[in-house]
Amino acid sequence: MKRTRKYLAGAAVTAAVAGMALVAGMATVSYAAPATAPHDTAGRAAHSATAAAASAPAAARKHAPTPRIVAPGERVTGAPGFELWLTPEGKHWTTPDMPEGQFRSVVDGNIDLSSPGVSLQYEGTPERVYLSGLYYGGKGTASVVEVETRAGTVAGKLIELPGRPGWGVWYATAVPDDSSWDFVSEVTVRDTKGRVYASLTRR
After folding, report:
1. Phi, psi torsion values for 187, nearest 5 degrees
2. How crowded is residue 124: how many other Cβ atoms within 10 Å of its Cβ?
3. Would residue 23 count as lying in a domain?
4. Taking a C-beta distance cutoff of 8 angstroms, is the pair 131, 143 a contact?
5. Structure pTM?
6. pLDDT tens digits for 10-61?
7. Which among 148, 143, 193, 185 has a CA at the least distance from the CA of 168?
8. Three-state DSSP class for 57?
9. 79 and 132 housed in the same domain
């Protein structure tokens, strides 16, 4: 079966997007204790509920997901025949029709690890596309990756080497669009606070 490979890279989305973190769904609740009812059980209950609601976002941030930390050379299976592993030099991966493996360097001078960015490689069959790439240079701790396609949003996963190297690899699988494999419009990696860590936009 004919194999197709694509390699793309892009810079981070600006702070206009990053400023939208964790706003939707949050409401401010105020409570004033009755001046003449010091033993008002309902009032104390309302106050407790307000305190719990205020602490919920902080708890959510504390338990936000982080990348899976892998040892150099440790293989991660994204799908049958689709494996990824990291070394200090970069990203390695296989697909069912490329079992000998491929490599994307982070030390060859083509990637500026000090500036936020995301790359995209995709290949596969008419039944399944294997999506993956590097992410690097963002602030904070990467948490999730969202891949926008014509069919909807695909959630991927993140892996990194120990010691906060400043880069990692994201990966996902998707069913290709009937009209074209070129169906990914955006890849966004967000940090543990919901802000954009790095992003690739294709128009």
Report:
1. -125, 120
2. 24
3. no
4. no
5. 0.71
6. 433 333 333 322 222 222 222 223 333 333 433 444 444 444 444 444 444 4
7. 143
8. helix
9. yes
